[in-house]
Specification:
The chain is an alpha+beta fold. The protein has one domain: B-lactam Antibiotic, Isopenicillin N Synthase, Chain (Jelly Rolls), CATH 2.60.120.330. 28% of the residues lie in helices and 19% in strands. Helix 1 packs across helix 5. InterPro entries: DIOX_N (IPR026992), IPNS-like_FE2OG_OXY (IPR044861), IPNS-like_sf (IPR027443), Iron_ascorbate_oxido_reductase (IPR050231). This is Clavaminate synthase-like protein.
Length: 377
Amino acid sequence: MAPELGSYQFVTETKENLDWADLITLDLSKYGTPEGNKELADFLIRAIREKGFFYVKNFNISQERVNRQFAMGKEFYELPLEEKLKYVPDLDNGQFNGYTPAGRRIIDEATGLRDRIEIYNIPKFNGYFPRDHPVLVKERLTEIEEFARSLHSEVLDPLFVLLAIALELPQDYFTNIHKYEEKSEDHLRYMKYSKYSAEENARIHHWGRGHTDLGSFTLLFRQPVAALQIKDHATGEWKWVKPQDGTLTVNACDALSFLTGGYVKSTIHRVTVPPKDQQHVDRLGLLYFSRPHNDIKLHTVKSPVLEREGYTQNEFEASGNPVPTMEEWTFAKQKWQRTPNRSYADNTYRTATILPGFKEKIYDELPTGSATVSVSA
């Protein structure tokens, strides 16, 4: 039997009065009736069209189960570095399941300061992704699998049904291309941002630059260290995302943008330096990344709503370039993201062509005299 996990203590929320984003909360206790689904579908499409981020509550996963996953992440990052390094995949070729060590990117050229972001990705438990894990993880794989599968059945499947309703598609349209048993690059992630000194924070300004995630929806569990910011779709202003008790924070991503011809917007976000009363602690994240099946071609779907609104082509279709499969898109963007020893001040990198027909964009400008990087999904 595995030794008991230690408890995980969340840090105290910031006392600073930050410019918080005004985000919609979807109450999934209303899900399951025609009236409730219609109300939630209207809320969802408004949220991902206007803001990109939204909260979900009453998703039928206990806080105790969530806390155990945070405890799991905490204990993983306390393992010796030499143990964690046994589980590094071929990052240079876009692989991402396993451990990504800190320090692959230069975030301040003047001092040579490197990032302090560590990632541990655990893929789906559906037979396609045999992985070795440290004993700490291996002894709890059953619990981790139950948690990951619950995120599909209790959160993602309802969201995909609601999205289909909003686009006047068959209700199972998106669930049919996001089945847990099919091969896709979904993964659960424990992510650690180790703290910087006050002097270092003054130089780097942000811990992760503005970016979009590459999949369908990203699920982010409540993390009291305020650092997540989103770029408002309408105004272009950066707003802080407030940690809300008992909720998941969810954002729409690139694949949904491609599948809807840009009607669903992929949310621009970043991890910035926390407020001063939280800069003395590390930031531990628990996330889940949802992606369509690997063999799905990212064509714009034939939706009555999209056709009425004029969203009938994505970037690949409009440029006449081949439309990639989700697998092709995933590994092309991951390979770009994981480029080692690259300074984020390099605009050639920041605007690179990921695949023919799609160039990455600069989502926020670098403050004068600094260079920072983004690590994203």
